[in-house]
């Protein structure tokens, strides 16, 4: 046998360098996992049917006349946009993380020389191609029905939309890390997240377009982070935002990404010190 | 290589009685108990040493291993592995160590072990040629060539454990923390696993700290043992010396050509077991040569062997005596 001892490597590639090198493999393995879990994965995706329910309701309401700026066609494009953006940007990190903290399986991730947040990001990003495949019919219908309004046929809005999708993914991911990491301290991390989810449903544009909310709720939605997780990319996609408004919203969204990213990393750092998972 | 000084680790544990009333009361007022898992523990392990880490259930072994692996922060004391402080989890430290826990696994459940190996190769930044060679070598040694491409969930516990070991050693760690690595394996597989660990230790000069409830693992692998009880060090030294100290009697096995009266055997020492063909006696070390001479002269002996008392008995006696001592102390204090 020709194995020989390899000394520990001082000056080893930095953590970020290692992440960049490892990411393609992590993504490939993640895709293999998604394929292995394809049945559960599809069922989970199909549970995201609320936008279609809301579409049916608002479509019926708008039959007698438009609601604000929303006629039947606008509701159709909006909720198909919600479905597409929601499926592309959501993930299940909070459930995974709180479970791994509570049952101690996080240990295996902590023992690897790559930060678990990077590993979780790769894990969840690898689900995006499969999700894109699943939502492609909805996107095709959206493009057919709302082609004349789509991104206002503006190249800048196309770029803003792509950046807003990345921003929404990161904002949701960091929020979930933040909420999941609460399991280091409290047993009811998922309960706290459910509360968050309730407010999110109203103020993110998931159930009702922000524009159709009462004035006070609209004001709150424009200031709080929820809209930037869903409503903003959808509004940009279906042509509800001017270039000026979209750029301002993008700046606010990435501001929230920075704040939630820092908060998630901070809570994680403190939380790991509390990690006990003792016994076997 | 490993330097532990005055290590203590305490946990704050929520405690409540069973029942709805207690559950409701705990909503308003929670009671916590401080559990001392490890107390003022000190030991050092040199490069290439194989050390058994023994103690009864709940003694603090796994907690200590987790502190050494950087998973837990010590409450007080200092711990160093190589030149690293484990809980800082420097990537170079994580590259240096591995922790194998028989009851936990890192293999991806629905994918073949080969996918976990590919992932670890990327995470540990191991050159492909080196990783392929390591996997090939380890797979050959553990005889698992036909398993690495089957989904992990379809493997037996023993098969999973072997595949787990390859994943844990792929980056060729220099410090092995092994927590019950042979749990659930059959006897021949336990023996193979022990050979494999010894082989790895000798090839790479890796330090090994092993906990196991199978004393055969400890006897076969660890010339030195560190014994803890209730989180405190009670012995650190040579395994045979521990056996001699706790059980100074030798175990003498006599194979007999015809049955012998029990009274005859009792003249020689304490009878552990006896039947028509074989008798096992416990004999004080100081009287051994006299007893052997007497036995050879008086009994129809076909074969005679002398061994230390089995380690299971030594440990049972050691912890049994300590438990008894603790009970007496608590009775004396009311």
- Return the average pLDDT of chain B rounded to an integer: 87
Q: How large is the count of helical segments of chain B?
A: 12
Count of individual domains of chain A: 1
Distance between the termini of chain A: 35 Å
Topology pattern of chain B, helix = H, strand = E: EHEEHEHEHHHEHEHEEHEHEEHEH
What is the helix tally of chain A? 13
Strand content of chain B: 25-35%
Q: Which structural category fits the helices and strands of chain B?
A: alpha/beta
The CATH topology of the largest domain in chain B is Rossmann fold
Shape of chain B: globular
- Which range does the strand content of chain A fall in? under 5%
Radius of gyration of chain A: 21 Å
Sheet with the most strands, sense and barrel status of chain A: none
CATH class of the largest domain in chain B: Alpha Beta
Determine the most extensive contact between two protein chains.
Answer: A-B, 40 and 49 residues
CATH homologous superfamily identity of the largest domain in chain B: P-loop containing nucleotide triphosphate hydrolases
> How many individual β-strands of chain A?
0
Terminal CA distance of chain B = 45 Å
The count of domains of chain B is 2
């Amino acid at each position: 046998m020709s194995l020989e001892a390899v000394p520990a490597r001082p000056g080893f590639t930095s953590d970020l360098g290692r992440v960049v090198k490892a990411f393609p493999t992590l993504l490939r393995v993640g895709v293999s996992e998604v394929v292995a879990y394809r049945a559960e994965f599809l069922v989970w995706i199909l549970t995201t049917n609320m936008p279609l329910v809301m579409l049916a309701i608002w479509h019926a309401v708008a039959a007698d006349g438009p609601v604000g700026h929303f006629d039947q066609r606008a509701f159709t494009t909006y909720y198909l946009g919600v479905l597409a953006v929601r499926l592309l940007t959501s993930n299940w990190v909070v459930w995974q993380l709180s479970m791994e903290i509570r049952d101690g399986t996080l240990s295996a991730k902590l023992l690897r020389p790559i930060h678990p947040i990077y590993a979780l990001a790769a894990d969840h990003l690898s689900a995006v191609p499969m999700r894109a495949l699943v939502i492609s019919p909805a996107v095709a219908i959206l493009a057919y029905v709302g082609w004349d309004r789509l991104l206002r046929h503006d190249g800048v809005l196309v770029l803003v939309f792509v950046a807003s999708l990345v921003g929404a993914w990161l904002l949701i991911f960091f929020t979930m890390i933040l909420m999941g990491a609460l399991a280091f301290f409290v047993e009811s991390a998922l309960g706290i997240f459910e509360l968050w989810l309730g407010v999110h449903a109203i103020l993110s544009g998931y159930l009702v377009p922000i524009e159709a909310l009462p004035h006070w709720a609209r004001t709150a939605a424009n200031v709080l982070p929820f809209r930037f997780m869903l409503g903003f990319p959808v509004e940009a996609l279906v042509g509800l935002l001017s270039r000026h408004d979209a750029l301002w919203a993008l700046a606010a969204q990435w501001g929230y990404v920075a704040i939630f990213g820092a908060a998630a990393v901070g809570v994680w750092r403190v939380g790991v010190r509390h990690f006990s998972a003792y016994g076997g | 290589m490993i330097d532990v000084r005055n290590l203590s680790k305490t946990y704050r544990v929520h405690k409540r009685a069973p029942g709805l009333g207690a559950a409701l009361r705990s909503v308003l007022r929670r009671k916590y108990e401080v559990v001392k898992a490890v107390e003022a523990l000190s030991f050092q392990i040199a490069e290439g040493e194989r050390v058994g880490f023994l103690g009864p259930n709940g003694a603090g072994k796994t907690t200590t291993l987790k502190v050494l692996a950087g998973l837990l922060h010590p409450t007080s004391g200092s711990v160093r592995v190589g030149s690293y402080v484990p809980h800082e989890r420097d990537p170079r430290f994580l590259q240096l160590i591995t922790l194998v826990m028989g009851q936990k696994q890192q293999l991806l459940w629905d994918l073949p072990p080969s996918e976990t190996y590919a992932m670890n190769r990327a995470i540990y930044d191991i050159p492909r040629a080196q990783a392929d060679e390591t996997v090939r070598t380890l797979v050959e040694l553990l005889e698992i060539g036909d398993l690495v491409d089957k989904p992990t969930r379809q493997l037996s516990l023993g098969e999973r454990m072997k595949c787990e070991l390859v994943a844990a050693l792929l980056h060729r760690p220099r410090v092995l923390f092994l927590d019950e690595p042979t749990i659930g394996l059959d006897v021949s597989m336990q023996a193979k696993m022990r050979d494999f660990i010894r082989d790895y230790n000798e090839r790479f000069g890796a330090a090994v700290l092993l906990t196991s409830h199978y004393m055969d693992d400890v006897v076969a692998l660890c010339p030195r043992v560190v014994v803890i009880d209730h989180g405190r060090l009670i012995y650190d030294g040579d395994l045979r010396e521990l056996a001699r100290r706790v059980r100074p009697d030798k175990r003498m096995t006599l194979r007999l050509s015809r049955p012998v009266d029990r009274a005859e055997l009792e003249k020689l020492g304490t009878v552990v077991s006896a039947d028509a063909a074989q008798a096992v006696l416990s004999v004080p070390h100081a009287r051994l040569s006299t007893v052997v001479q007497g036995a050879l002269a008086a009994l129809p002996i076909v074969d005679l062997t002398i061994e230390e008392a089995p380690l299971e008995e030594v440990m049972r006696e050691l912890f049994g005596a300590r438990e008894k001592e603790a009970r007496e102390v608590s009775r004396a204090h009311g």
